[in-house]
């Protein structure tokens, strides 16, 4: 196995590769606008148009070019694009839809290298653990490959998911570069300000490192299996924890028909109506009952087993909701079905999804227009309500919580798959039934009693801590030790210019005084120290003028 060392030189080479790909796809200005290119405009790939400077580019090819850039840059960038495809609130609907087309068709890693990863991770010869290994992967993606085999000990069919060599090192290197570029681009390009790129990259870093730690997926499989242990029609692959690590998962092999294939043709032994029902009911249970749900339930991650059960696979990314969010989400769903825009906005504010400042007349009007589309409609024709609500908020430039977007996208995927399998299926009715059940449970005596105990405990802690907090604050005020931290926004550039200006002023004054010195070396009758001071002052002055002209331009 090749060993890759992550050096500064590697990062520079990679940054150069990224610039070439960006320039090839007419995005070179993203780097040129915040590096030395800015000081030398004639070296730029092209000059930004006024529309792009204002963040309102009319170029319809941007989404396509973005997708091509991410595909060319490799696994980490493909994963970033896939994450952004679920965030239309950040990148816009057009870009999000285009990024859903990203191809994850990276080259297959040779089996010899995969074998070395397995043996290093599991600490034993592969042939002592598995038999009948098919060296051709049954699945391959950017960071992992899946193989079919049998356990030597039991003879059971298993699927072995193995991380490709050096995946973590390559991703770590690319994320360092992403952070550097995100910070610089966000600092210098107005058109990218609304995206808040540093926050996007931080969110991506957190999610990608969870995904490449296969022990996370191992626990996800176990947790989801536990949540569905009493549901007869759902199957979750069993995990063989003795043969799992951060880079290897050994799980039960699921033999069946992928739902993607089921959508294309009929299988006599499979009842599509039942599968549609199983999918919607099980997913709504994950979101509203368990608060632990599959983040990407597209048809490729669903398999119908030979005994007619529905199986969820690829559990690398899961969404998690607390008890309070589940209850308030159920209330929001009922309000959506009831079509009361005022109460919906109040609920969104209560859930911290939007702020009071975002409660604009435009949002209210757009929400009324969207709800009027469903006016008088039967409940079975109201699928997609939550997804439509997300789109309204995206159009109003509202950045949404990650989990809320994941829920909206997940429910939309499941509803769409259910409709394709059974056009008569009523997902909205199932959603309403489950939401109503949760809201009713919220007001049961035992639930109220439990909440009351929690609130009383919080009040007790507050009452105990309050005297000490007050005493400490008063003591700091009396001793003059109370500190107030103020955050200055967008003044760093001004401070730098002021600093140079002060140095320049000091040099001019000092040089003027030095001109009166009679001792020491003289040139043309003037003290050399004073002349040097004036030369340096002149250079600094010219620099400031050029800087001012560039910034003004």
What report would you give on this structure?
The chain is built from 23 helices and 13 strands. Mean pLDDT is 80; it is low at 1-5 and 35-58. It starts with 7 loop residues before the first helix and ends with a helix. A hairpin with a 4-residue loop joins strand 9 and strand 10 (310-312). It has helices at 8-24, 29-32, 50-53, 62-73, 75-84, 88-91, 93-99, 111-122, 126-129, 167-188, 197-211, 214-227, 259-264, 272-290, 323-338, 341-350, 361-372, 385-395, 402-421, 427-442, 445-478, 492-514, 528-552; strands at 130-131, 139-140, 144-151, 157-163, 234-235, 248-252, 256-258, 292-294, 302-305, 310-312, 318-320, 522-523, 526-527. The strands form four sheets. Strands 1, 2, 3, 4 and 6 form a five-stranded antiparallel beta sheet that branches. The longest helix has 34 residues, at 445-478. Helix 4 packs antiparallel against helix 5, helix 15 (323-338) packs antiparallel against helix 16 and helix 15 packs across helix 20. Among the domains are: 257-471, no CATH class; 492-552. The protein is an alpha+beta fold.
Annotation, overall tally of beta strands: 13
Q: Helix- and strand-based class?
A: alpha+beta
- Count the DSSP helices: 23
Q: Please indicate the percent range of residues in DSSP E strands (runs of 2 or more).
A: 5-15%
Mean pLDDT: 80
The best one-word shape is globular
Q: Give the terminus-to-terminus CA distance.
A: 52 Å
Radius of gyration: 30 Å
What's the main sheet like? 5 strands, antiparallel
Helix content: 55-70%
């Amino acid at each position: 196995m090749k060993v890759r060392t992550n050096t500064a030189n590697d990062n520079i080479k990679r940054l150069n590769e990224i610039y070439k790909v960006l320039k090839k796809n007419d995005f070179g200005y993203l780097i040129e606008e915040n590096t030395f290119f800015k000081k030398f405009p004639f070296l730029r790939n092209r000059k930004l148009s006024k529309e792009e400077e204002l963040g309102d580019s009319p170029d319809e090819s941007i989404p396509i070019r973005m997708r091509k850039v991410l595909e060319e840059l490799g696994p980490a960038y493909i994963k970033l694009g896939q994450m952004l495809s679920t965030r239309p609130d950040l990148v816009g609907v057009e870009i999000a839809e285009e990024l859903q087309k990203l191809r994850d068709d990276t080259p297959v890693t040779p089996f010899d290298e995969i074998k070395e990863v397995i043996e290093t991770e599991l600490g034993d010869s592969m042939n002592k653990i598995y038999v009948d290994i098919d060296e051709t992967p049954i699945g391959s993606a950017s960071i992992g490959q899946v193989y079919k085999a049998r356990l030597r000990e039991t003879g059971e069919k298993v699927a072995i998911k193995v991380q490709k060599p050096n995946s973590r090192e390559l991703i770590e290197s690319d994320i360092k570069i992403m952070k550097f570029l995100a910070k610089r681009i966000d600092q210098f390009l107005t058109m990218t300000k609304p995206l808040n790129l540093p926050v996007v990259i931080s969110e991506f870093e957190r999610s990608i490192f969870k995904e490449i730690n296969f022990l996370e997926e191992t626990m996800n499989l176990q947790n989801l299996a536990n949540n569905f242990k009493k549901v007869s029609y759902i199957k979750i692959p069993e995990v063989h924890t003795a043969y799992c690590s951060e880079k290897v998962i050994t799980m039960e092999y699921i033999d069946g028909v992928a739902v993607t294939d089921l959508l294309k043709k009929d299988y006599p032994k499979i009842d599509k109506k039942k599968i549609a029902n199983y999918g919607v009911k099980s997913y709504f249970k994950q979101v509203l009952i368990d608060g632990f749900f599959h983040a990407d339930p597209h048809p490729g991650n669903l398999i119908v087993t030979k005994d007619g059960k529905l199986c969820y696979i690829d559990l690398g990314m899961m969404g998690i909701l607390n008890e309070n969010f589940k209850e308030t989400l159920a209330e929001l769903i009922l309000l959506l079905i009831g079509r009361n825009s005022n109460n919906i906005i109040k609920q969104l504010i209560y859930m911290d999804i939007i702020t009071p400042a975002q409660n604009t007349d435009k949002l209210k009007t757009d929400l009324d227009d969207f709800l009027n589309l469903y006016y008088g409609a039967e409940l079975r024709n109201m699928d997609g309500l939550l997804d439509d609500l997300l789109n309204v908020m995206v159009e109003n430039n509202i950045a949404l919580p990650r989990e809320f977007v994941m829920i909206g996208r997940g429910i939309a995927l499941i509803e769409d798959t259910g409709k394709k399998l059974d056009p008569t299926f009523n997902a909205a009715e199932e959603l309403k039934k489950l939401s109503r059940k949760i809201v009713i449970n919220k007001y049961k005596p035992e639930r109220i009693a439990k909440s009351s105990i929690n609130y009383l405990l919080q009040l007790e802690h507050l009452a105990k801590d309050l005297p000490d907090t007050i005493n400490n604050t008063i003591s700091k005020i009396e001793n003059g030790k109370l500190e107030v931290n103020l955050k200055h926004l967008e003044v760093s550039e001004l401070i730098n210019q002021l600093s140079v200006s002060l140095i320049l002023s000091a040099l001019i004054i000092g040089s003027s005084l030095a001109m009166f010195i009679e001792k020491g070396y003289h040139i043309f009758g003037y003290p050399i120290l004073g002349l040097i001071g004036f030369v340096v002052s002149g250079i600094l002055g010219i620099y400031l003028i050029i800087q001012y002209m560039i910034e003004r331009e």
